[in-house]
Structure formats: C-alpha cells, structure tokens
Hints:
- This protein has one domain: TIM Barrel, CATH 3.20.20.
- Helix content is 32%, strand content 18%.
- The protein has helices at 62-72, 91-94, 96-106, 124-129, 144-150, 157-169, 188-192, 210-215, 224-230, 232-236; strands at 4-8, 14-16, 22-24, 27-28, 55-59, 78-80, 111-115, 133-138, 173-178, 198-201.
- Helix 1 runs parallel beside helix 3 (96-106).
- The relative contact order is 0.13.
- The model has no long low-confidence stretch (mean pLDDT 96).
- The chain binds iron/sulfur cluster (SF4).
- Iron/sulfur cluster (SF4) binds at residues 30, 32-34, 37, 39, 84-85, 116, 154.
Amino acid sequence: MTPTVREVQAKSVLSKSKIYPWVVNPYTGCEHACTYCYARFMKRFSSHPEPWGEFVDVKVNAPSLLRAEVRKKRRATVWVSGVCDPYQPLEAHYRLTRQCLEILVENRWPVVVQTRSPLVLRDLDILRDARDVEVGLSITTADDSIRELFEPCAPPIAERIRALDELHRAGVRTYAMIAPVLPGAEGLADLLRGKVDYVLLDRMNYHYADRVYREHGLEDALTAEFYYRATQDLRSL
Ligand code: SF4
C-alpha cells in the first residue's frame, strides 16, 4: 500500500515524553500500519482523512529545528521515536532520522532508538561511535505468519533479529521490545540469546487488534495465563 505523503514544516521536534524525558518523531504517521498500533491517536493531530498507516507527514525541517532546540533545552535522554517508526521505508529517502541522530550524538545527548526495521543498520557508523546510545528492535513474535496478521507492512522477524545481532556484535547496547506479546513470542528466547543486553515485555493491554484475534481464533492469547506462559523463558533470559 502506498501512503499519502505530505512534506510539512513542524513548529518543534524535541518534545517532552512520559517514557523518556524527550522524544523526537521526524514523521507523523507510520507506514508499518501495525493493527494494534497504540499511536493511531496521532491521526487526530493530522488533517488526513486516510486511516492510520495510509498517510505520513514528513517533517522536512526536523533537523534544523532540532539543531536549534538542543541548544536551548536541558540535555537528557531522547527517545527516537515514540509515535512513528523512525526507520519506516520513507526514511531511506528522507534521511531525517539519520540527521537527527547525528545532531543528538554530536551534542552528546543520550539516545534510545526504537524501530521494527533493519534500515537502522544504515546508521551503524553513527551508532557504533556514539557514547550513550542504545537501540531496540520491537519484535512481538517469533512466528512470521503471526507477524503477517498483526504487522503486515513491517519487516519480517528474521530481519529484525539479524539487525539486533549485527548491532550487538558492533558493540552497540541493544534491547528487544516484546510488546505486545503476540502468539509465538515464546520462541523468541532462543532467537534473542546473545544478541541483546535486555528485554522489555508487556502484554496486549489495548483493544485495537481485537478483530484480528477473533478472526483467527486467537482469543486465548489475550489472557493473563497466555502472557505468563509465553514469557516464562523470556523472563529468565
Ligand atoms: S511501527 Fe510502531 S508506530 Fe508504526 S504502526 Fe507499528 S506500532 Fe505503530
């Protein structure tokens, strides 16, 4: 699916966040269009009639804004990104995340990158030399047929594992964000061993993807019992 893409001028790009002190979102909207995406509330802040996943606003002035904002704001950890994937396919062309990363690293701001895409490897040259950077790959299941049901437009699981492996071997601190824990997540413990410094886990605790669970007879995977069973090995990892 080709999204509607608009180039926009943002007013600010370094925003306060409840997860880390700051967050940078170079895009509004996300081509990955995960069925459960918690960030779909962002549609309200756009003028797009298209559903979530079918539009992206590209903040083409994000690097110049960030360069000015890092001079004025208090230095603390920046999350890249919170409500879009910073390495969604458009980033290969626009390179906004790369430019923002360069600015943050040059100015010694700690950075936590979070993505579902191996495109992050393009920026290994910056990540490897940075003093305070960690990179997380969001991986919700080890079963790529389940991934196709819930994250049809996001990169395959094997590519994300390969990205973690390569980053970790290059000396970058890495983590896996397994949230929401989907059916097949129990297979991730073996795949992640030796490739991450830590793992973050959370269960499906919102309802956007209920239809997908119902249509495929996966309702059991919404229970607390499933969550504790599926994450047993991961918690020991
Ligand atoms: S990659 Fe993240 S922001 Fe993008 S659609 Fe999926 S959950 Fe939402």
